[in-house]
Design the sequence.
């Protein structure tokens, strides 16, 4: 099977969060064996899905120290198929147009795995290793990086250095922000729940509704979007404290700048201490925290400061649920981060709400004087590519591996902004070839 056909077949396999990565892992494992590598399949049950890490080595036994080449095999959900105009309304049907391959996972980051595999296969007959390479395809990057965590907890690798797959336009990423995903639940009082129930049974109503529109973006790049939820909450803060919230709804997920929000209120009730006042108090604390963020700038990043995004609001039968993310550059210590979270927790508790951090990933930075960074930049320079490292406002597995002392950089073919997580996702075939060459040079430099 040639490389292009392998790309087509890999894109054709569904590895979205609801499907899991078992099918793609089985395909990848078989292809790695076909290339002459020794393969282990680490199976894990996560929720109700069987997920698989694929671990491929040129040696039969796990050595005491390794050079990790890692790429996640899962993708985001494709969204409406009809919007995938370059692939005939099918995100799993790869199309090559003007030297670019289009399809879900083309850039983020299925095809990067094949680039690493091609590079590894060139050394399959190597007899001795200074630092043996290990190629790993993980699951669950798009849902908490569970695959990387399971890999570490079960001691499946012995990595000292790592190249983490990430669409970077063939540039080295030596630092990335961390993040915390937060969930707040504000309960309705018994009086409010009774009123809401009675209200739904009436033929006439005194409620008013308003729709808010914004512009969607990833939560790591809030400057590229416009939050409809923020508009809704600003509007709510201008209303009297006595208004009763009948419905608040906004956003698609906690990790996205919301493009839409809906608010239904009743101005005529006499409910004491309504939930609207509690929501406003919590949002006011969020705004105060965002002002404090401006005092902490890391100019290696854009945006340079920490950010906080409310990506999702839902009205449930018993409460209003608010979910969002906080993005944290490496200059923020864990103590400062904990202080911010404690402040939000206290405000929530004062307003009768619960506060929970569902997930936390530390930021990472590998310094410019590291052997790994210098070596990778040397190889890019020799190839005529950019030897200036960049940073990333979002988070990936480098956060997990760096936490246990693995020296990490991120790299991959494909442009990130305006490409990944869109229905126009693509990567240039020329860039895939360059990535293969780069990985070969890195293996020769650090491993042989």
Sequence:
């Amino acid at each position: 099977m040639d490389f292009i056909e392998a790309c087509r077949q890999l894109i054709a396999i569904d590895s979205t969060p609801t499907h899991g990565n078992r099918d793609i892992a089985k395909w990848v494992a078989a292809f790695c064996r076909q290339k002459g590598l020794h393969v282990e399949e680490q199976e894990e049950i996560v929720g109700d899905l069987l997920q698989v890490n694929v671990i491929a080595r040129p040696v039969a036994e796990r050595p005491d120290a390794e050079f990790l080449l890692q790429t996640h095999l899962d993708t985001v959900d494709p969204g409406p198929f009809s919007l995938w105009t370059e692939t005939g309304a099918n995100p799993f049907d790869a199309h090559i147009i003007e030297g670019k391959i289009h399809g879900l996972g083309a850039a983020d980051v299925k095809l990067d795995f094949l680039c690493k595999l091609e590079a590894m296969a060139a050394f399959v007959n190597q007899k001795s290793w200074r630092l043996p390479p290990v190629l790993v395809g993980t699951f669950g990057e798009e849902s908490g990086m569970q695959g990387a965590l399971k890999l570490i907890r079960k001691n499946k690798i012995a990595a000292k250095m790592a190249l983490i797959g990430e669409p970077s336009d063939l540039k080295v990423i030596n630092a990335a922000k961390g993040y915390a995903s937060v969930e707040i639940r504000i309960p309705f009082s018994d009086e409010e729940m009774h009123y809401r129930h009675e209200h739904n049974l009436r033929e006439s109503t005194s409620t008013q509704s308003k729709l808010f529109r914004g512009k969607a973006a990833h939560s790591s790049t809030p400057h590229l979007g416009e939050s409809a939820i923020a508009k809704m909450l600003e509007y709510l803060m201008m209303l009297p404290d006595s208004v009763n919230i009948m419905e608040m709804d906004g956003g698609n997920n906690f990790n996205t700048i919301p493009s839409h929000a809906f608010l239904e209120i009743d101005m005529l009730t006499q409910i004491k201490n309504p939930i609207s006042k509690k929501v406003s108090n919590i949002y006011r604390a969020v705004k105060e925290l965002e002002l404090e963020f401006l005092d902490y700038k890391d100019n290696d990043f854009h945006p340079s400061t920490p950010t906080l995004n409310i990506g999702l609001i839902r009205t449930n039968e018993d409460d209003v649920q608010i979910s969002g993310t906080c993005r944290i550059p490496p200059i923020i210590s864990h103590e400062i981060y904990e202080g911010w979270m404690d402040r939000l927790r206290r405000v929530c508790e004062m307003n009768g709400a619960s506060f929970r951090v569902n997930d936390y990933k530390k930021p990472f930075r590998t310094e410019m004087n590291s052997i790994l960074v210098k070596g990778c930049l040397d190889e890019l320079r020799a190839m005529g590519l950019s030897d200036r490292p960049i940073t990333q406002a979002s988070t990936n597995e480098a956060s997990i591996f760096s936490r246990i002392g693995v020296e990490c950089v991120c790299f991959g073919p494909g442009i990130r902004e305006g490409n990944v997580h869109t229905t126009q996702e693509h990567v240039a075939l020329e860039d895939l070839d360059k990535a293969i060459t780069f990985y070969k040079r890195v293996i020769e430099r650090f491993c042989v």
Residues 10 and 27 are 8 Å apart (CA to CA). The longest strand covers residues 178-187.
